[in-house]
Every structure is written in C-alpha cells, then in structure tokens.
Amino acid sequence: MSNIEIDYDTILKFRNGDEPAFTAIYNHFYNNIFSFCKYLLPTIEDARDMTAQIFILLWEKKEALDSYKHLRAFLFLNARNKCYNFLRNQKNRTAIDKEISDFSNAEQMSILFSEIESELITSIREEVEKLPEYYRKILQLSYFQGYNNQEIADMLQISEKTVRNAKSIALKTVRMVFLNRNMKIGFPLASVFFFN
C-alpha cells in the first residue's frame, strides 16, 4: 500500500458508484490486504479468495465509507473477522472446534489489527521464523492461527503456564531485534505482539 492516502474526491466518487474510483482504491489497498490474509490463512489460494470477498463487500458497503481512515479500518477489520471465521469453520470441519479467543481479546484484536501495515507484518514474521522451532510453533499457533494458551497447551501436551512463559521469552527475543535496529513500532502492533 502506498504511503499516499486516497484523496477525498476519489472516495466521494467511489461512494457514488464510480468504477474507476473503486479500481483506484482496489489497487491502493490490494497488496496490503492480500498480505494480511496470506499471513493468517493456510494457503495462498485461500488468501486470494478471501481478499476478493473483502473487496466485494467493500463495494457493497461503499455508501457508508466517507474517509480514508474508514476505508482502511473497514478493510482490515473485515479481513481479520473473515479470516478468523474461516479458521473457526476449518476447526469445525475437523471436529476440533474451540473458541479462537475470548470476546474481549477478539474485539481488541479487531481494533489493533486495523493499524497494521504489511511491511511491518512481514518484518515481524521474518524474525519469528528465525526463532527455535519450539518458540516459533507457539507464536504461530497463538498469533497467526488464533489459538488461546490453553488450546496450545492441550495440543503440545504442556502446561498453560509453560505456554505463557514460552510466549514471553519468544516475544522478548523478537522485540530485542527491533530495539537493536532502532525501529519504532507503533503502539497498536506492539500491544498485540509484545504485551499479551
């Protein structure tokens, strides 16, 4: 996604059903939303399908969106919700359906993820991939696949406290990499990855 925001005239035209304006918005946000879905979903094909669904929904709800901030929030929040619904349905089909997270955490994540930029997601993902397999697996199950601590403990046959401790160690390791690079991580993203 470009750092330059979509201008208000384009948004106004989009609200009135102008297809070139929609195309401009689609091109502006597509890579960012696709990266976000790809980050959460199991396959690239799933991410492509989900991204297409989100932009269809954007077109259907165009009259309610009156600013760049609202457009971005709408796209990220719906991407987050639809991806987690997809994952929950996958669990249902495999007979291991459980809550992805409790209600308050889900609502918090909805708000926080609306601020995530794809470049920063990629940077964090790269650092997580460098962790030892044990810690990487726990972070992937927690933040990328939506399992809570007790679910992870059950799957790995360890205690819930061990999961919490492992997450803490792994997150501190990733955080130190960014601090050593003198990278400034915005509060929303830091809240998700570094203070849970």
Automatic annotation (TrEMBL):
It comes from the Bacteria. It holds the Pfam family Sigma70_r2. CDD domains: Sigma70_r4 (cd06171). Residues 26-91 form the RNA polymerase sigma-70 region domain. GO terms for molecular function: DNA binding; sigma factor activity. GO terms for biological process: DNA-templated transcription initiation. SUPFAM superfamilies: Sigma2 domain of RNA polymerase sigma factors (SSF88946), Sigma3 and sigma4 domains of RNA polymerase sigma factors (SSF88659). Keywords: Sigma factor, Transcription, Transcription regulation. The keyword Transcription applies. The keyword Iron does not apply. InterPro entries: RNA_pol_sigma-70-like, RNA_pol_sigma-70_dom, RNA_pol_sigma70_r2, RNA_pol_sigma70_r4_t2, RNA_pol_sigma_r2, RNA_pol_sigma_r3/r4-like, WH-like_DNA-bd_sf. Residues 123-172 form the RNA polymerase sigma factor 70 region 4 type domain. Belongs to the sigma-70 factor family. ECF subfamily. PANTHER family: RNA POLYMERASE ECF-TYPE SIGMA FACTO, RNA POLYMERASE SIGMA-70 FACTOR ECF SUBFAMILY. NCBIfam families: sigma70-ECF. This is RNA polymerase sigma-70 factor (ECF subfamily).
